[in-house]
Automatic annotation (TrEMBL):
It comes from Streptosporangium pseudovulgare. This is tRNA-dihydrouridine synthase. Residues 322-350 are annotated as: Disordered. It catalyses: a 5,6-dihydrouridine in tRNA + NAD(+) = a uridine in tRNA + NADH + H(+); a 5,6-dihydrouridine in tRNA + NADP(+) = a uridine in tRNA + NADPH + H(+). Belongs to the dus family.
Amino acid sequence: MKLGALEVWPPVVLAPMAGITNAPFRTLCREQGGGLFVCEMITTRALVERNAKTLKMIRFAPQEKPRSIQLYGVDPVTVGRAVRMIADEDLADHVDLNFGCPVPKVTRRGGGSALPYKRNLLRAILREAVRNAGTLPVTMKMRKGIDDDHLTYLDAGRIAVEEGVSAIALHGRTAIQHYGGTADWSAIARLKEAVPEIPVLGNGDIWSASDAMRMIAETGCDGVVVGRGCLGRPWLFADLAAACEGRDDRARPTLGEVAATMDRHATLLAEAFGNEQHAVADFRKHVGWYLKGFVVGADLRRNLATSSTLAGLREGLAELDAAQPWPDGADTPRGKTNPRDRVHLPTGWLDDPYEMAVPCADAETDTSGG
Protein backbone atom coordinates (compact mmCIF):
# COMPACT_ATOMS: atom_id res chain seq x y z
CA MET A 1 0.00 0.00 0.00
CA LYS A 2 1.40 3.37 -1.01
CA LEU A 3 0.77 6.52 1.00
CA GLY A 4 2.45 9.16 -1.08
CA ALA A 5 6.12 8.16 -1.14
CA LEU A 6 5.65 5.73 1.76
CA GLU A 7 5.21 2.03 1.10
CA VAL A 8 3.42 0.21 3.90
CA TRP A 9 3.35 -3.58 4.14
CA PRO A 10 1.34 -5.29 5.38
CA PRO A 11 -1.47 -2.78 4.73
CA VAL A 12 -2.31 -2.55 8.42
CA VAL A 13 -2.55 0.55 10.62
CA LEU A 14 -2.65 0.78 14.40
CA ALA A 15 -5.35 3.33 15.16
CA PRO A 16 -4.38 6.13 17.52
CA MET A 17 -6.05 5.62 20.89
CA ALA A 18 -5.80 8.09 23.75
CA GLY A 19 -3.80 6.72 26.66
CA ILE A 20 -3.03 3.52 24.72
CA THR A 21 -0.86 4.00 21.64
CA ASN A 22 2.15 5.51 23.37
CA ALA A 23 5.67 4.41 22.45
CA PRO A 24 5.70 1.30 24.70
CA PHE A 25 2.49 -0.11 23.23
CA ARG A 26 3.59 0.76 19.69
CA THR A 27 6.83 -1.11 20.35
CA LEU A 28 4.98 -4.24 21.43
CA CYS A 29 2.75 -4.13 18.35
CA ARG A 30 5.53 -3.30 15.90
CA GLU A 31 7.61 -6.25 17.09
CA GLN A 32 4.80 -8.59 16.05
CA GLY A 33 4.46 -7.45 12.45
CA GLY A 34 4.86 -4.58 10.04
CA GLY A 35 2.48 -1.78 9.19
CA LEU A 36 1.91 1.81 10.27
CA PHE A 37 1.73 2.53 13.99
CA VAL A 38 0.20 5.88 14.89
CA CYS A 39 0.85 7.78 18.10
CA GLU A 40 -1.85 9.22 20.32
CA MET A 41 -3.84 12.14 18.92
CA ILE A 42 -2.04 15.50 19.13
CA THR A 43 -3.81 18.85 19.09
CA THR A 44 -2.43 21.29 16.57
CA ARG A 45 -2.58 24.25 18.91
CA ALA A 46 -0.64 22.41 21.60
CA LEU A 47 1.98 21.43 19.04
CA VAL A 48 2.56 24.90 17.61
CA GLU A 49 2.67 26.32 21.14
CA ARG A 50 5.24 23.63 21.99
CA ASN A 51 3.31 22.31 24.96
CA ALA A 52 5.72 20.16 27.01
CA LYS A 53 3.32 17.23 27.38
CA THR A 54 2.58 17.21 23.66
CA LEU A 55 6.24 17.33 22.64
CA LYS A 56 6.92 14.39 24.93
CA MET A 57 4.09 12.40 23.36
CA ILE A 58 5.61 12.65 19.88
CA ARG A 59 8.96 11.17 20.83
CA PHE A 60 9.59 8.04 18.79
CA ALA A 61 11.92 5.17 19.54
CA PRO A 62 14.99 4.97 17.24
CA GLN A 63 13.64 1.84 15.53
CA GLU A 64 10.25 3.39 14.74
CA LYS A 65 10.03 3.83 10.99
CA PRO A 66 7.89 5.22 9.57
CA ARG A 67 6.93 7.66 12.34
CA SER A 68 3.27 8.58 12.26
CA ILE A 69 1.47 11.46 14.00
CA GLN A 70 -2.27 12.05 14.14
CA LEU A 71 -3.34 15.67 14.47
CA TYR A 72 -6.61 17.09 15.72
CA GLY A 73 -7.43 20.63 14.71
CA VAL A 74 -10.32 22.88 13.71
CA ASP A 75 -8.57 26.01 12.43
CA PRO A 76 -7.00 25.80 8.95
CA VAL A 77 -4.22 28.24 9.80
CA THR A 78 -3.21 26.40 12.97
CA VAL A 79 -3.38 23.02 11.25
CA GLY A 80 -1.15 24.34 8.50
CA ARG A 81 1.38 25.67 11.00
CA ALA A 82 1.44 22.35 12.85
CA VAL A 83 2.00 20.34 9.68
CA ARG A 84 4.73 22.75 8.55
CA MET A 85 6.43 22.34 11.93
CA ILE A 86 6.35 18.55 11.59
CA ALA A 87 7.81 18.72 8.09
CA ASP A 88 10.45 21.37 8.77
CA GLU A 89 11.66 19.82 12.03
CA ASP A 90 11.52 16.20 10.82
CA LEU A 91 9.17 15.20 13.63
CA ALA A 92 7.42 12.44 11.65
CA ASP A 93 7.20 10.72 8.28
CA HIS A 94 3.42 10.79 7.98
CA VAL A 95 0.58 13.02 9.17
CA ASP A 96 -2.96 11.79 9.75
CA LEU A 97 -5.84 14.18 10.44
CA ASN A 98 -8.56 13.23 12.89
CA PHE A 99 -12.15 13.76 11.75
CA GLY A 100 -13.51 10.70 13.51
CA CYS A 101 -13.41 11.32 17.26
CA PRO A 102 -16.99 11.04 18.63
CA VAL A 103 -16.48 12.08 22.26
CA PRO A 104 -18.71 14.95 23.46
CA LYS A 105 -15.91 17.25 24.59
CA VAL A 106 -14.67 17.23 20.96
CA THR A 107 -17.91 17.25 18.95
CA ARG A 108 -19.64 19.90 21.09
CA ARG A 109 -16.91 22.28 19.93
CA GLY A 110 -17.20 21.35 16.26
CA GLY A 111 -14.22 19.02 16.09
CA GLY A 112 -13.64 15.37 15.31
CA SER A 113 -16.58 13.60 13.67
CA ALA A 114 -18.65 16.79 13.73
CA LEU A 115 -16.31 18.78 11.49
CA PRO A 116 -16.82 17.12 8.06
CA TYR A 117 -20.41 18.38 8.09
CA LYS A 118 -18.94 21.81 7.38
CA ARG A 119 -17.69 20.99 3.89
CA ASN A 120 -15.86 24.24 3.18
CA LEU A 121 -14.12 24.22 6.54
CA LEU A 122 -13.01 20.64 5.93
CA ARG A 123 -11.66 21.63 2.53
CA ALA A 124 -9.73 24.57 3.97
CA ILE A 125 -8.13 22.41 6.65
CA LEU A 126 -7.11 19.72 4.19
CA ARG A 127 -5.73 22.31 1.75
CA GLU A 128 -3.57 23.93 4.41
CA ALA A 129 -2.33 20.57 5.68
CA VAL A 130 -1.32 19.28 2.24
CA ARG A 131 0.18 22.64 1.21
CA ASN A 132 2.43 22.72 4.26
CA ALA A 133 3.39 19.04 4.34
CA GLY A 134 6.11 19.16 1.72
CA THR A 135 6.88 15.56 0.79
CA LEU A 136 5.07 14.07 3.78
CA PRO A 137 1.88 12.15 2.97
CA VAL A 138 -1.27 13.52 4.59
CA THR A 139 -4.12 11.13 5.31
CA MET A 140 -7.42 11.48 7.15
CA LYS A 141 -9.60 9.30 9.35
CA MET A 142 -13.33 9.88 9.55
CA ARG A 143 -16.71 8.35 10.34
CA LYS A 144 -19.77 7.99 8.14
CA GLY A 145 -21.22 11.18 9.55
CA ILE A 146 -22.98 12.59 12.57
CA ASP A 147 -25.97 10.26 12.31
CA ASP A 148 -27.93 8.52 9.55
CA ASP A 149 -29.67 11.80 8.67
CA HIS A 150 -26.38 13.66 8.35
CA LEU A 151 -23.96 11.41 6.46
CA THR A 152 -20.84 13.15 5.20
CA TYR A 153 -18.33 10.48 4.20
CA LEU A 154 -18.86 10.53 0.44
CA ASP A 155 -18.66 14.32 0.18
CA ALA A 156 -15.65 14.32 2.49
CA GLY A 157 -13.97 11.65 0.40
CA ARG A 158 -14.28 13.64 -2.81
CA ILE A 159 -13.04 16.79 -1.09
CA ALA A 160 -10.04 14.86 0.22
CA VAL A 161 -9.11 13.63 -3.25
CA GLU A 162 -9.47 17.11 -4.73
CA GLU A 163 -7.19 18.57 -2.04
CA GLY A 164 -4.40 16.02 -2.47
CA VAL A 165 -4.91 13.75 0.54
CA SER A 166 -2.96 10.50 0.14
CA ALA A 167 -5.44 8.06 1.72
CA ILE A 168 -8.67 7.92 3.71
CA ALA A 169 -9.60 5.66 6.61
CA LEU A 170 -13.30 5.20 7.26
CA HIS A 171 -14.78 3.90 10.50
CA GLY A 172 -18.06 2.36 9.45
CA ARG A 173 -20.07 4.02 12.21
CA THR A 174 -21.67 7.41 12.75
CA ALA A 175 -20.78 9.65 15.66
CA ILE A 176 -24.02 8.83 17.47
CA GLN A 177 -23.17 5.13 17.36
CA HIS A 178 -19.95 5.86 19.21
CA TYR A 179 -18.60 2.27 19.44
CA GLY A 180 -21.98 0.55 19.71
CA GLY A 181 -23.86 -1.59 17.26
CA THR A 182 -22.20 -3.07 14.20
CA ALA A 183 -19.84 -1.28 11.83
CA ASP A 184 -21.30 -0.73 8.37
CA TRP A 185 -18.72 -2.22 6.06
CA SER A 186 -20.89 -1.48 3.02
CA ALA A 187 -20.10 2.21 3.53
CA ILE A 188 -16.41 1.38 3.16
CA ALA A 189 -17.19 -0.29 -0.16
CA ARG A 190 -19.19 2.73 -1.34
CA LEU A 191 -16.35 5.08 -0.40
CA LYS A 192 -13.84 2.95 -2.29
CA GLU A 193 -16.06 3.13 -5.36
CA ALA A 194 -16.36 6.90 -4.97
CA VAL A 195 -12.63 7.61 -4.58
CA PRO A 196 -10.75 5.01 -6.64
CA GLU A 197 -7.81 7.42 -7.06
CA ILE A 198 -6.39 6.88 -3.55
CA PRO A 199 -6.21 4.07 -0.98
CA VAL A 200 -9.21 3.58 1.29
CA LEU A 201 -8.69 1.82 4.61
CA GLY A 202 -11.50 0.18 6.54
CA ASN A 203 -12.00 0.44 10.28
CA GLY A 204 -14.54 -1.07 12.64
CA ASP A 205 -15.16 -4.52 14.14
CA ILE A 206 -11.82 -6.08 13.25
CA TRP A 207 -11.31 -8.50 16.13
CA SER A 208 -9.20 -11.06 14.27
CA ALA A 209 -7.11 -11.50 11.16
CA SER A 210 -10.05 -13.33 9.60
CA ASP A 211 -12.18 -10.23 10.11
CA ALA A 212 -9.57 -8.12 8.35
CA MET A 213 -9.38 -10.44 5.36
CA ARG A 214 -13.17 -10.57 5.15
CA MET A 215 -13.39 -6.77 5.24
CA ILE A 216 -10.89 -6.46 2.38
CA ALA A 217 -12.70 -9.12 0.35
CA GLU A 218 -16.17 -7.65 0.93
CA THR A 219 -15.35 -3.96 0.49
CA GLY A 220 -12.37 -3.84 -1.85
CA CYS A 221 -10.56 -1.59 0.62
CA ASP A 222 -6.79 -1.29 0.34
CA GLY A 223 -5.97 -1.94 3.99
CA VAL A 224 -7.35 -2.00 7.51
CA VAL A 225 -7.12 0.15 10.62
CA VAL A 226 -7.17 -1.76 13.90
CA GLY A 227 -8.14 -0.14 17.18
CA ARG A 228 -9.93 -1.89 20.02
CA GLY A 229 -9.20 -5.35 18.60
CA CYS A 230 -5.57 -5.15 19.69
CA LEU A 231 -6.23 -4.00 23.26
CA GLY A 232 -4.32 -6.42 25.46
CA ARG A 233 -3.38 -8.31 22.32
CA PRO A 234 -0.39 -6.85 20.46
CA TRP A 235 0.18 -10.21 18.77
CA LEU A 236 -2.87 -9.50 16.60
CA PHE A 237 -0.37 -7.77 14.33
CA ALA A 238 1.47 -11.07 13.89
CA ASP A 239 -1.82 -12.65 12.83
CA LEU A 240 -2.51 -9.81 10.41
CA ALA A 241 0.95 -10.06 8.85
CA ALA A 242 0.54 -13.81 8.39
CA ALA A 243 -2.91 -13.42 6.85
CA CYS A 244 -1.73 -10.74 4.43
CA GLU A 245 1.05 -13.08 3.32
CA GLY A 246 -1.40 -15.94 2.80
CA ARG A 247 -0.33 -17.95 5.84
CA ASP A 248 -2.76 -19.66 8.20
CA ASP A 249 -0.61 -19.57 11.36
CA ARG A 250 -2.01 -17.51 14.21
CA ALA A 251 -0.51 -16.44 17.53
CA ARG A 252 -2.12 -18.30 20.40
CA PRO A 253 -0.03 -17.51 23.48
CA THR A 254 -0.39 -19.36 26.74
CA LEU A 255 -1.27 -17.42 29.86
CA GLY A 256 2.40 -17.58 30.84
CA GLU A 257 3.39 -15.90 27.58
CA VAL A 258 0.68 -13.30 28.07
CA ALA A 259 2.02 -12.64 31.57
CA ALA A 260 5.51 -12.11 30.17
CA THR A 261 4.13 -9.56 27.73
CA MET A 262 2.27 -7.80 30.55
CA ASP A 263 5.50 -7.59 32.54
CA ARG A 264 7.36 -6.16 29.56
CA HIS A 265 4.59 -3.68 28.79
CA ALA A 266 4.64 -2.30 32.32
CA THR A 267 8.45 -2.19 32.31
CA LEU A 268 8.51 -0.24 29.04
CA LEU A 269 5.99 2.20 30.46
CA ALA A 270 8.20 2.74 33.52
CA GLU A 271 11.18 3.44 31.28
CA ALA A 272 9.18 5.83 29.10
CA PHE A 273 7.51 7.71 31.96
CA GLY A 274 10.54 7.73 34.23
CA ASN A 275 8.18 7.07 37.14
CA GLU A 276 7.43 3.50 38.19
CA GLN A 277 4.32 4.30 40.23
CA HIS A 278 2.80 6.35 37.41
CA ALA A 279 3.62 3.61 34.89
CA VAL A 280 2.08 0.80 36.92
CA ALA A 281 -1.02 2.88 37.58
CA ASP A 282 -1.30 3.56 33.84
CA PHE A 283 -0.91 -0.14 33.10
CA ARG A 284 -3.90 -1.10 35.26
CA LYS A 285 -6.38 -0.41 32.47
CA HIS A 286 -4.65 -3.03 30.31
CA VAL A 287 -4.98 -5.90 32.82
CA GLY A 288 -8.57 -6.84 31.97
CA TRP A 289 -7.84 -6.75 28.24
CA TYR A 290 -4.80 -9.01 28.54
CA LEU A 291 -6.68 -11.53 30.70
CA LYS A 292 -9.88 -11.55 28.63
CA GLY A 293 -11.18 -15.11 28.34
CA PHE A 294 -8.63 -16.69 30.66
CA VAL A 295 -9.70 -18.37 33.89
CA VAL A 296 -8.28 -16.12 36.60
CA GLY A 297 -9.72 -15.75 40.08
CA ALA A 298 -11.43 -12.51 41.03
CA ASP A 299 -9.00 -11.79 43.88
CA LEU A 300 -5.96 -12.23 41.66
CA ARG A 301 -7.49 -10.08 38.92
CA ARG A 302 -8.17 -7.39 41.51
CA ASN A 303 -4.63 -7.57 42.87
CA LEU A 304 -3.14 -7.23 39.41
CA ALA A 305 -5.43 -4.31 38.57
CA THR A 306 -4.50 -2.45 41.76
CA SER A 307 -0.75 -3.03 41.83
CA SER A 308 1.34 0.03 42.58
CA THR A 309 4.87 -1.28 41.90
CA LEU A 310 6.51 -3.48 39.31
CA ALA A 311 7.48 -5.90 42.05
CA GLY A 312 3.88 -6.18 43.21
CA LEU A 313 2.66 -6.65 39.65
CA ARG A 314 5.23 -9.39 39.04
CA GLU A 315 4.22 -11.19 42.22
CA GLY A 316 0.67 -11.35 40.92
CA LEU A 317 1.74 -12.42 37.44
CA ALA A 318 3.74 -15.29 38.98
CA GLU A 319 0.51 -16.65 40.47
CA LEU A 320 -1.14 -17.08 37.07
CA ASP A 321 -1.48 -20.58 35.61
CA ALA A 322 1.30 -20.26 33.04
CA ALA A 323 0.29 -23.41 31.15
CA GLN A 324 -3.30 -22.31 30.57
CA PRO A 325 -3.90 -22.25 26.79
CA TRP A 326 -5.28 -19.41 24.74
CA PRO A 327 -9.03 -19.38 25.38
CA ASP A 328 -11.70 -20.01 22.79
CA GLY A 329 -13.73 -16.90 22.07
CA ALA A 330 -10.98 -14.42 22.93
CA ASP A 331 -11.18 -12.92 19.41
CA THR A 332 -14.30 -11.02 20.36
CA PRO A 333 -15.20 -7.36 21.00
CA ARG A 334 -13.24 -5.54 23.67
CA GLY A 335 -13.21 -1.96 24.85
CA LYS A 336 -16.13 0.50 24.70
CA THR A 337 -19.31 -0.71 23.01
CA ASN A 338 -22.14 1.61 24.07
CA PRO A 339 -23.89 3.94 21.60
CA ARG A 340 -24.95 7.50 22.54
CA ASP A 341 -28.45 8.92 22.65
CA ARG A 342 -27.33 12.10 20.90
CA VAL A 343 -24.28 13.88 19.49
CA HIS A 344 -23.27 17.04 21.29
CA LEU A 345 -22.80 19.83 18.73
CA PRO A 346 -22.32 23.60 18.80
CA THR A 347 -25.56 25.60 18.68
CA GLY A 348 -26.79 25.85 15.10
CA TRP A 349 -24.08 23.54 13.75
CA LEU A 350 -26.47 21.71 11.42
CA ASP A 351 -28.06 24.86 9.98
CA ASP A 352 -25.67 25.32 7.06
CA PRO A 353 -23.29 22.57 5.90
CA TYR A 354 -21.28 25.03 3.80
CA GLU A 355 -20.76 27.70 6.42
CA MET A 356 -17.08 28.62 6.64
CA ALA A 357 -17.04 29.38 10.36
CA VAL A 358 -14.06 28.18 12.36
CA PRO A 359 -15.23 26.78 15.73
CA CYS A 360 -14.60 28.76 18.89
CA ALA A 361 -11.08 29.38 20.12
CA ASP A 362 -11.35 26.77 22.87
CA ALA A 363 -12.28 23.99 20.43
CA GLU A 364 -8.81 22.61 20.99
CA THR A 365 -7.75 21.90 24.53
CA ASP A 366 -4.25 23.07 25.37
CA THR A 367 -2.91 19.54 25.72
CA SER A 368 -3.07 16.38 23.65
CA GLY A 369 -4.06 12.77 23.97
CA GLY A 370 -7.82 12.88 23.42
